[in-house]
Design goal:
The complex is a heterodimer of chains A (about 220) and B (about 140). Chain A has about 220 residues and is mainly α. Chain A has helices at about 1-30, 35-55, 60-75, 85-105, 115-120, 135-155, 160-170, 175-180, 185-200, 205. In chain A, helix 2 (about 35-55) crosses helix 4 (about 85-105) and helix 7 crosses helix 9 (about 185-200). The radius of gyration of chain A is 19 Å and the shape is globular. Chain B has helices at about 5-15, 20-30, 35-40, 50-100, 105-120, 125-130. The longest helix of chain B has about 50 residues, at about 50-100. Chain B is mostly helical and about 140 residues long. The chains are: A mainly alpha (about 220), B mainly alpha (about 140).
């Protein structure tokens, strides 16, 4: 019963949020730039975060996330509110990310941020959580685990990766993920199941120990 | 009305308002899954504070580019149309003026005039009127 009430609350909030997004799109189509700013500020975290998780490259993620909003802005005039706005926007994310994957698979890219910087105490480019409150040992272990999780996510096939990122980090429903991935709900569940099993295998060292303590 | 007649209507109406059982069950599974909990240890990266400003600027730039592209296309179209019409007029004028001023025609006219002069020299009227002065006088008389 408690779960049902929470679900209803979440669904109600999602509907309000969707109506707000559609109202913003109408204002953007009328040339209201402040509406565009509101829309960007509302969704930048989800769009950028999803792309960054998908690509593992924060610089490329910034560029692609900006492209998503440019496309949304350009399409505002012709946008028809037939589906949920967020689902529609994440379909753009999916197209751009998969295109980027194909481009990368065709070209041999030399990374602009070589991994040796990380070993010298540099940043991987992600905004990591504040580790200042932890001891150096705990911080290092936490960082190591985060990198292992990111590597495991990046090793997944692109459909599984997007499904798991959308479900875990953006809390999309199965129907919404199926719509974004242009597949069926059972196929989406299957993708998520396989992704979880792959992650379970890749991260088994971290699953056997209490969270945040690192592998033995 | 019997209770059994009411039940299907009641059930279908209530079911529409209730959450999807699958989603609830799966959400429960998600929360209890150690992999799911472990993924939370690596949060989603956040964009920097200037992301929205840069994105807005890029949107403006993209739209300005699209608009200027549209204007230049319109200009090109108008210039092409106007230029085409002008070219057609010029071609018409040139093709009408060529026969009068063509060097070939002038040469032909000169040749024709020369032939006319020669023909006049050989004609009987010319011979009779200018017999005294003709260099081709018959000296057999």
């Amino acid at each position: 019963m408690k779960d049902e009430i929470r679900y209803d609350d979440e669904r109600g909030a999602a509907n309000v949020s969707d109506a707000h997004d559609k109202a913003l799109m109408t204002r953007i189509a009328a040339g209201d730039e402040s509406a565009l700013r509101d829309l960007i500020e509302k969704h930048e975290g989800a769009v950028y975060g999803t792309i960054a998780k998908m690509l593992g490259d924060p610089v490329e993620a910034q560029d692609l996330a900006q492209q998503v909003f440019v496309r949304v802005y350009r399409a505002a005039g012709s946008y028809r509110a037939t589906a949920q706005f967020k689902t529609w926007m994440f379909t753009i994310v999916r197209n751009l990310v998969f295109n980027e994957h194909r481009r990368r698979s065709r070209a041999t890219l030399i990374p602009l941020h070589p991994p040796e910087n990380e070993g010298q105490g540099g940043s991987s480019g992600y905004d990591l959580p504040d580790l200042a409150t932890k001891t150096p040992g705990e911080g290092a272990l936490q960082k190591e685990m985060m990198e292992a999780i990111n590597r495991a996510i990046l090793s997944l096939p692109e459909q599984q990766r997007l499904a798991i990122v959308l479900r875990r980090y953006d809390e999309f429903s199965y129907e919404e993920i199926a719509s974004i991935l242009k597949t069926s709900v059972p196929a989406t569940k299957s993708l998520l199941f396989r992704a979880r099993e792959t992650l379970r295998e890749a991260l088994k060292d971290y699953l056997e120990i209490p969270s945040g303590k690192g592998p033995h | 009305m019997r209770n059994s007649e009411l039940r299907p209507v009641f059930d279908s109406k209530m079911k529409a308002d209730f959450p999807n059982d699958d989603d609830l069950r799966e959400a429960g599974l998600d929360e209890n899954d150690p992999v799911w909990r472990l993924l939370a240890e690596s949060p989603r990266p956040e964009p920097d504070a200037w992301f929205a400003v840069r994105t807005l600027a890029r949107c403006r730039y993209a739209m300005a580019g699209a608009e200027s592209h549209g204007i230049s296309f319109g200009r090109i179209w108008r210039w092409t149309l106007g230029g085409g019409l002008g070219l057609c007029l010029a071609v018409l004028l040139v093709t009408q003026q060529i026969p009068a001023t063509s060097p070939t025609d002038l040469k032909q006219q000169k040749v024709q005039a020369a032939f006319e002069v020669m023909a006049n020299l050989d004609s009987p009227e010319t011979d009779s009127t200018s017999s005294s002065t003709s260099t081709w006088q018959d000296s057999s008389d």
